[in-house]
Input
Amino acid sequence: MKPTLFLLAAGMGSRYGGLKQLDTLGPQGQSIMDYSIYDAIQAGFGKIVWVIRRDFEEQFRTQILAKYEGHVPCELCFQSLDALPEGFTVPEGRQKPWGTNHAVLMGKDVIKEPFAVLNCDDFYDRDAFRVMAKFLSELPEGSKGKYAMVGFRVDNTLSESGTVSRGICENDEKTHLLTGVVERTKIERRNGVVQYLDDNGEDWVSIPDTTPVSMNFWGFTPDYFDYSEAYFKTFLSDPKNQANLKSEFFIPLMVDHLIKTGQATCEVLDTTSKWFGVTYPEDRPEVVAKLAALHEAGQYPAQMF
Output
């Protein structure tokens, strides 16, 4: 069975100042998600599912979905603030969505096969899709609790504009299984070496260029939905999360819980892919130039769909 690509598209991109999922960045007006879907189909993914908000469903169907429906099966699901387990209600005053793993939960009714989850406003490059498709398609039928994460080499995720925040992966060197992810908020190349600023904010620590980091590209089997539903109830019941109107149920939080409780493993998949994305408006010209260069090099056709 071919795996499914599950794209997280419910955010508005507040720092970017617009709906960057629909921004035309490629030379023929392509969005970044066009490249993800093109690379996913080439890698062997058999279905595309998006999680979006209902208030831009019509625009999404017109601008996005219509392009792909003749090429690959497509489905939509919807994230809303009040999509909660029975017995739970939205805390008074809360406006912020519940986070990436809540968005993943919205796909339970339409995804019954192994699937990959990723942001649709990041460029991941084709090798990342290749390694994930290979992992998911080679899982024995009925597999449970055997997940994966694409571990991008930190050197391939740096910015020329300054420091970046990345989740540095800790994994067993023999099994390549993830043991933890440590968030580092300031990483850059200094004097020719990749370094991050340590917790005391004073010392820079050197790491190899090939150190794997998480860019939110995960692979799961359908049992992940059941685990997530159960743990989401625990998350919602926590008084700290009830009091904090901006608390979020993130994918790394869920994966970390499953690893530490022995319910699942997560293999870190190495890739040669180079990541880039649009976080701030100032990033846009550089992304446009990089995509144009990929077309000029023949990596993508002028007419992708």
